[in-house]
Design goal:
Helix content: 10-25%
Shape: globular
Strand content: 25-35%
CATH class of the largest domain: Mainly Beta
CATH superfamily of the largest domain: Quinoprotein alcohol dehydrogenase-like superfamily
CATH topology of the largest domain: Methanol Dehydrogenase, Chain A
Bound molecules: calcium ion
Length: 706
Amino acid sequence: MFYACQRVFVLFVVLIVAICHGDRLSAQPASGESATHPVTDERIAGADSEPANWLSYGRTYSEQRFSPLDQINVENIDRLKLAWYVDLDSKRGVEATPIVVDGVMYTTAAWSIVYAIDAASGKLLWKYDPKADRKQGFYACCDVVNRGAAVWGDKVYVGVIDGRLIALDAKTGKLVWETVTVDQSKPYTITGAPRVVKGKVIIGNGGAEFGVRGYISAYDAESGKMVWRFYTVPGNPADGFESPEMQKAAATWHGEWWKGGGGGTVWDSMAFDPELDLLYIGTGNGSPWNQRLRSPGGGDNLFLSSIVALRPDTGEYVWHYQTTPGETWDFTSTQHIMLADLNWRGKTRKVLMQAPKNGFFYVIDRETGKLLGADAYVKTTWASHVDLESGRPVETPNARYDIDRQVVQPGPFGGHNWHPMAFSPKTGLVYVPTQELAFLYEDEKQFKRSDSNFNLGINFHAGALPANDADAAKVIKAFSGSLTAWDPVAQAPRWRVHLDDVWNGGALATAGNLVLQGTNRGQLNAYRADTGEKLWSSDVQTGVHAPPISYAVAGRQFIAVSAGSGTALGLAAGQLASHSLAPNRSRMLVFALDGKATLPPAPTVARAAPAHLPAVTADEAALELGKQHFLTHCARCHGENSVSGNVIPDLRYAAALTAPEQWQGIVHDGALVANGMMAFAKWLDPKQTEMVRQYVLSRAKALSRP
Ligand code: CA
């Protein structure tokens, strides 16, 4: 019955919503009230029968990010205007997908702060700050972001950056339970959105840049008690294996891999097929990245860079497909996992699709894990192709860097990263935020584990941009982004929109024949889903990394997007971001036809180095030492060459540069720890701290002056 409704729906959205779901709409509070119907598995599984809501991360368990709403469409999109906005208490990156249940939006911002907002008016209903220890920001490789909440029953679930999982009362925002999901003495972080499947809250974590062992866990949604845990890489065999799969996986590793954690963290993607009763998870890169150091002698290193199918009730392993055996490039398979039923070579196949970092778009039979297709969706130099018989990539001679340094494409940023894709069942296309950029991999011959820096096993700064800004700009010109409409059956792009920068936002497809995507520089754009023709653009004053969503309240369709520059680009690639990332203004922005809201004018960001910079007194050798300390301890947040990416303070402009004692107080003693700035006394003595100041001072003096 709802299928018939869905088809007619294309033409008469408001009317048909009323016919199909008259009860729910009329019972739905116009504004200000919390959900009256608890969210259930049945509701999420039947999400297509209530298109006004966005009940889970990817809207449906299949994570297609397609909205059946079409009140906003190619004919009237010029009337799409800002309806309301809410400022979020954050100056760091925002990545959240909001959840909308019966007129209430639940969303998150940096530091895992949770908001409930009236989805029609933008009125704040409640806010919950889990008060994450700001020192934990030090172990967030890619900013203290949060990709969103899950709502189930009468509760809201959020993973906190410090490793907690919390359950809040959806009506009041009061804490119901919280549980610590990680060993907090280790550099674990949570940035991903939980999913709720069969009464269990599923959550993974990150930390493989620093050195942890990956796993995913399920917690009882009512009590918060752990139900199961699935490790993605084997631990120390001497401790015994948790499962037969871990024993098998251990045969694909060499050396003492467990000492560095191994990696394989499950920091983002999941999908669920209720019919097959399979939960799909994506696993991350090796820890350290460099396989020569991680598993000397090679091996596939299961289950790194894999898609693993599990039983949601028990966490029992069913099948896996490894996209990058013997991972050594930070090639994660944590990217968006999307399920669809495709007409594949004349037969309907239940498939799973993923465009992981490594540059190949995979179509996999989701019942068995058998590879059906894999073709390059961006330039790839590490593998010539994927062999469909063996299911394995065919590596090129210049892929691995254990003997010589290699320029490899894609690099650690991936041909596609965490930014969600979208699938339109109407066009049959998958809309992928793609990018073209290479990376120089150089083996770190003198690798020594550090507790203040990434542990990658490569010289991360070998390919640093030129210190001179004009020269850096020339290099950056070679990088680009795109929105690619990928035909998964033809295994080729149908259309591609070129974007000047890398690291653009996630995508939304709608029944209005629209695809929406934000950009780093601060635009939200809309394209025709069938042709890629650009139809609409709005200046939103800040970088948009998160994917838009769509929902309706009282028959009015809205398009919402979390905005706020930051994330991995703003931190780990600060100098690159300095050329392409708009300043941070963290907001929830919501658009509708004939919306009446306007943003306040964007303040001009005037940056000036302190007026009277003192002289650099260090000699060249000391400056070089200062630079090395900076690269080891500071650059992964404040940017290579001391050029930061518009999110973390650019130290060349820091007032403390002129005040050596204040500099010591901040860098050595931790005066700004409440802002997330760690005390470095553990790693730098006062003399070394001063050398860093001298180096940054020399960089500040190199700034061109009016
Ligand atoms: Ca990684």
